[in-house]
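Milestone M4 deliverable, item 7.
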Amino acid sequence: MENLIRKAAADLKAAKKVVALTGAGISVDSGIPPFRGKGGVWEKIDPDYAHIDKFMEDPADVWNVLIKDMKILIDKAKPNDGHKGLATLEQMGILEAVITQNVDGLHQMAGNTDVIEFHGSFAWQRCMICQKRIETAKVDISEIPPRCQCEGILRPEVVFFGEMIPHEALFRSRRLAANCDIMLVVGTSAVVHPAATMPMIAKQSRAKVIEINPERTPLTGSISDYLIRGKAGDVMNDIIAQLQDS
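Output delivered:
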């Protein structure tokens, strides 16, 4: 693994345009469970609660079953070393942007300034009447569903099932993937589309794809040039330390 850390640091140092793609795995150490897989949200909650039709039909029920608990988790969550490592790469002038499948806002909290949120964000709520935006941490949930001053119901700025991924997020992600010379894939199972196509686009454009994951994924051995196995925070700390020493 030490050789791969050195290789990743050397590749990043030589790169002109680096983009990161992140998934749920990078936020697990911040106390936020993934939605899919072992220990995921969908093991406990029916995924129908994440469909826009269910929310429109009964927003109070969806708030009580799904959104309220997500708010409690996100209110407490802090960036871990994985998020901080990517922010440090940006500060070092190496990383240009982060494309994330996560909805927790932790990349921005860590210090990354260009974050494309493929699935929106639970960190912000929007009034369904006046469209006013309110930080989730500042939303009073003593009344469910919570309401804006105009009495409109608040909804998270996430992409519910049944809603379209924002066009601008998809367009910019594809453009970044096609123009980067390194894509860092961190903490994603690479099975949720269209986000999972971004490493493929990068590879087709002759970029190097570096994967940081605890386990192999569908990208391993085919799309990714190499896999560094381990927790995102541990691996990012090692890469940053190598870069600072070189």
